[in-house]
Amino acid sequence: MSRQLTLFFGNALLDLTVPVTAEEEKHLVQRFGLVPHVGQEKDTIQNELMAFVSETRSDSTSYAPGGCALNSSRMMAWLCQREALDVTTVFIGTRGAMDRSTQKLLSLVQNDGVDILMAERLNLPTGHCINLVQSVERTMVANLGAASHFNLSDLQELGVESKLKMTQLVYMEGFFAIHSLDAFKAIIHLCCQRARIKFCFNLCGEYVCRSFEFVKEVTYALSEMDILYGNMSEFETFLKTASTLDNPNIEALKCGLKGGQYIQSAEERSDRTKGRLESSHICTVIITNGSNPVISFLLDTTASRVFEFLSVRVPKVPRNEIKDTVGAGDCFVAGYLFAMLLNRSRLQCIEKGIEASHLVLKQSGTSLPN
Ligand SMILES: *[C@@H]1O[C@H](CO)[C@@H](O)[C@H](O)[C@H]1NC(C)=O
Ligand SMILES: *[C@@H]1O[C@H](CO)[C@@H](O)[C@H](O)[C@H]1NC(C)=O
Ligand SMILES: *[C@@H]1O[C@H](CO)[C@@H](O)[C@H](O)[C@H]1NC(C)=O
Ligand SMILES: *[C@@H]1O[C@H](CO)[C@@H](O)[C@H](O)[C@H]1NC(C)=O
Ligand SMILES: *[C@@H]1O[C@H](CO)[C@@H](O)[C@H](O)[C@H]1NC(C)=O
Questions:
Q1: 84 CB under 6 A from ligand 4?
Q2: Is it true that domain 4-13+67-126+145-361 has CATH number 3.40.1190.20?
Q3: Which among 235, 285, 292, 325 is the best mutation to test ligand 2's pocket, defined by most ligand atoms within 8 Å of the CB?
Q4: How far does residue 280's CA lie from ligand 3's centre (Å)?
Q5: Model confidence band, residue 261 (pLDDT cutoffs 50, 70, 90)
Q6: Which of 95, 120, 121, 153 best tests ligand 1's pocket when mutated (most atoms within 8 Å of CB)?
Q7: Which of 85, 133, 166, 208 could form a disulfide with 80 if both were Cys (CB 3.0 to 4.6 A apart)?
Q8: Burial status of residue 185 (CB atoms within 10 A of its CB: 0-12, 13-18, 19 or more)
Q9: Where are the domains of the chain?
Q10: Is 330 considered catalytic here?
Q11: Ligand 1 lined by 120 (C-beta under 6 Å)
Q12: How buried is 56 (Cβ within 10 angstroms: 0-12 exposed, 13-18 middle, 19+ buried)?
């Protein structure tokens, strides 16, 4: 029997962390036209920042895989390994030519037990994010490069449809969907046609939720989605952008977010189960809110109603044990989905998500515990 797969679609990014002194930082910010101490997108090839780092700083630079879905896939592979679940985690995205940083990224990801299926754009660099770090301040310069060029032809070329025969779970991040909406629609449709495949979508991050085009397509796709995840800020931004859409599922999501005040009564629910269950589509919604309770409810996208509201308390992590919150959300999803592969209840999946996110709070970045 062939092994089961889980497919993660996302931006393949290599994180480069370059320690600098205050003096050096000032100089580099000026030389490469950067804004200090914030995140920004730049053509790091054209302004030669990438060449500068690899030629003069290669010894002091540390490398890590970046990207939300990439980090979730690494956590998923780690959980499968630790708990001996025979499921292969596959990351799907786009890379540039096979230069040193591409090789570095691929080998780091493979070492974490993730299989890679990548379309190529040989005229573009592999996506990367250069972090100039000076004590607690960091100037982040991202270049998505090849990562933002995934399209419909790549689905064909990578044989994604035949992979789906062995797949029970497909995951995609918002950062990926926004630049590849055609592929997003095609993939979710393929999954929806196969009842045993669950499609999980992560809204991340806030800036994509400000794009009307993105929000519109995600709203239409709710009727084919099995799990919708995001944090509170992302949901609030998403719903604000969606407010002009006049879509009943958006109204239902707003009710769910208000804490279930308008959740239908048990009576109404049994009416529904009598008549419509066969034809209705249910999407599980999960919202994290930092250290506040995780909220979840079911959205019947056919009747545009929410029900079965859950609020799950997050155990406190002592402040001195928290290294940083980088990747907490991405690891929450990985934990949730892992428990789902084990057919656990929604409550148990959320608890597993919390457990996984707490593991990385105690690590710096999204490095995995030994
Ligand atoms: C996808 O991108 C490749 C490379 O740029 C291009 O050759 C192909 O025509 C594109 N396909 C679609 C459907 O846009
Ligand atoms: C999310 O957390 C904030 C506190 O940071 C709280 O005020 C808010 O009520 C929470 N939202 C929900 C819907 O629980
Ligand atoms: C949601 O995630 C973003 C990006 O990781 C973060 O900046 C924001 O504080 C998070 N919001 C909540 C409510 O957790
Ligand atoms: C979960 O349930 C599915 C469908 O009933 C089954 O095929 C699968 O083997 C189960 N997985 C585990 C780990 O029990
Ligand atoms: C992914 O994990 C790496 C560390 O392994 C971290 O540096 C990076 O910020 C994480 N990316 C995201 C989007 O959280």
A1: no
A2: yes
A3: 292
A4: 32
A5: low
A6: 153
A7: 85
A8: middle
A9: 4-13+67-126+145-361
A10: yes
A11: no
A12: exposed
- pLDDT at site 365: 63
Mean pLDDT of 84-93: 97
CA-to-CA dists, residue 205 to 118, 179, 234, 238, angstroms: 23, 13, 6, 10
> How many Å apart are CA 159 and CA 328, to the nearest integer?
32
Q: How far apart are CA 51 and CA 45, in angstroms?
A: 7
How far apart, in Å, are the Cα atoms of 184 and each of 192, 201, 254, 261? 12, 10, 24, 33
pTM score:
0.93
Inter-axis angle of helices 212-221 and 232-241, to 10 degrees?
100
| Residue count (the chain) | 370
- pLDDT confidence of residue 193: 94
Other C-beta atoms lying within 10 Å of the C-beta of residue 218: 25
In whole angstroms, give the CA distance from residue 130 to residue 350: 33
